[in-house]
Amino acid sequence: MSSSITTSLLTAGFTALLGLAVFVAGQFALKLFVEPIQAQKRAIGKTAHALTYYANVIEGSDPETVSEGRKVYRDLAAEFRASTNVIPLYRMFARWKAVPPSERAKVAHARLIYLSNTIGTAKYGGRRRKEQGAR
After folding, report:
1. Does this model's pTM top 0.85?
2. From the CB of residue 72, how many other CB atoms can be counted at a distance below 10 Å?
3. What is the DSSP string of 61-114?
4. Own/partner pairs for 81-86, CB < 8 Å, 24+ apart?
5. CA-to-CA distance for 72 and 134, rounded, in angstroms?
6. Which member of 80, 97, 106, 135 has the greatest number of CB atoms within 10 A?
7. What pLDDT was estimated at residue 73?
8. What is the pLDDT of residues 19-48, one digit of tens each?
9. CA 84, CA 81: separation in Å to the nearest integer?
10. H/E element holding 43?
11. DSSP 3-state assignment of 119?
12. Percent residues over pLDDT 70 in the chain
């Protein structure tokens, strides 16, 4: 009778330890991989929002709006770069299409920096607006 109780207690203890190990491994994977990838996706979403929101800021726009747009684009470039750099095994996740390829991430960062430097100038929107008006 006591061997059956011992076996039951050992089985319950082993099951509890195994459950704890699975929980710890899941949390490890969540913190190491899933959360950084979600942070990058959030940065991409914020960038899409900003590109739409500041699309009408052209040469001669309100200086306050231009300054705000420059700060937002620069901040998004930094946030995107930081979120890209903290993802371990980035190339593997890029092959699985969970994240953009690193080349595209670098180009996106550079273009956001370019936008932060040119928003409110003829380079940013003036030329494109003139072309659209000429049609």
Report:
1. no
2. 20
3. --HHHHHHHHHHHHHHHHHHHHHHHT-TTHHHHHHTTSS--HHHHHHHHHHHHH
4. 81/105, 81/109, 83/36, 83/39, 83/40, 83/42, 83/43, 84/40, 84/109, 86/36, 86/39
5. 31
6. 80
7. 97
8. 999 999 999 999 999 999 999 999 999 999
9. 5
10. helix 35-53
11. coil
12. 91
Mean pLDDT of the chain: 90
Distances (CA, A) of 44 to 1, 51, 74, 129, 134: 63, 11, 14, 26, 33
Report pLDDT digits (tens) over 85-112.
999 999 999 999 999 999 999 999 999 9
Please check whether residue 47 is in contact with residue 80, taking contact to mean a CB–CB distance below 8 angstroms. yes
Are the CB atoms for 25 and 19 separated by under 8 Å?
Answer: no
Q: Does the pLDDT at position 69 exceed 50?
A: yes
> Half-sphere exposure of residue 110, counting CA atoms within 13 Å on the CB side?
6
CA atoms of 51 and 80, how far apart (whole Å): 14
Domains in the chain: boundaries = 33-134
Identify residue 23 by its one-letter amino acid code.
Answer: F
What is the rounded distance in angstroms from the CA atom of residue 71 to the CA atom of residue 66? 9
DSSP label of 30: I
